[in-house]
Amino acid sequence: MSGGGKYRFGFVSVVGGTNVGKSTLVNTLVGRKICATSSKPNTTRNRINGIFTDDEAQIVFTDTPGIVRPKGELLKKMTASALGALESGITLAVTDSSAAFGAGEVRAIRDSSRPVIVALNKTDIASRQSVLEAIKKSEQFGDKIADIVPVSALKKTGTERLLEVLKKSLPEGEKQFPDDNGTDAMDGFIAAEFVREKIFRLTHGEVPYQSAVVVREMRRGKGGILYINAEVLLEKESHKKIVIGKGGEMLKKIGSRARNDIENFLETKVFLELNVMVKPGWSKDRDFIEDIYGR
Questions:
Q1: pTM for this one?
Q2: What is the rounded CA–CA span in Å between residue 262 and residue 186?
């Protein structure tokens, strides 16, 4: 350990509104892709932990859904998941430097029981004036903000300083996870998230928002290939036609891109089988949502 200091360990809840770059920031800080990302809001639906480890500290980052005014059972579940993360550890509020402190970040900062560290994200596409105005705007929160760090999660600038700020805020403690762990999430959950990410990136309109992915089976096959069977659940028959595409081309594209990410994450060859199913009204079914995303 450098500097002779004591080792530090702790949890950091990454919170904020939709589309501010929380998942991209977690991926950058952890140093590998574990969170689904897209340009569409509400891509993240459940909390997922990403683990950073070096010779000074181990930080468990909890990526959360965007905090919104919920409409419908799915958004209620997502918002409750995000707000529940405020109850433990350090709070890292992520905000877009071009439109700083939206309703989601304001609620996270005000509801947090301890001072919040703010990551002022997307500085690579914001003007210098916007960044300065955002820093000025942060003064409205007084001592509710412990520190504010301008970063670009996409370009990986400012993130080293952010890590240093977070490390200093951690309590002393021994690491709880092996050095090579990037996440404590189950492999099936990660695989489902990567498939769902591709649906978000490749389809439009209401299709991605009314889609869910559930891994039904994972097993080793011949030659050590990992066989994964996953169901893509949709609300309407018209959505099924879009996801499958003409001659099955869209489903092939979704599966191919998801398989590449899964193989990179698991470091093994994967055979991915996707079955597209229609389950009308699933996004309004509280019991079904809790079966997929937990209670």
A1: 0.82
A2: 12
Q: Cα 156 to chain center, whole Å? A: 17
Residues 121 and 46 both lie in one domain: yes
Contacts of 13 (CB under 8 A, 6+ apart): 62, 64, 85, 86, 88, 89, 90, 91, 92
pLDDT tens for 158-204 read: 999 999 999 999 999 999 988 887 887 789 989 999 999 999 999 99
Tell me the three state secondary structure of residue 32: coil
Contacts of 36 (CB under 8 A, 6+ apart): 23, 43, 44, 193, 194, 196, 197, 200
Q: Could you list the residue range(s) of the whole structural domain that residue 270 is in?
A: 187-293
Give the phi and the psi of residue 226 in degrees, each rounded to 5: -85, 120
Q: What's the N-to-C CA distance of the chain in angstroms? A: 40
Q: How far apart are CA 42 and CA 47, in angstroms?
A: 12
Number of compact structural domains in the chain? 2
Residue 269's Cβ-side half-sphere holds a number of Cα atoms within 13 Å equal to: 6
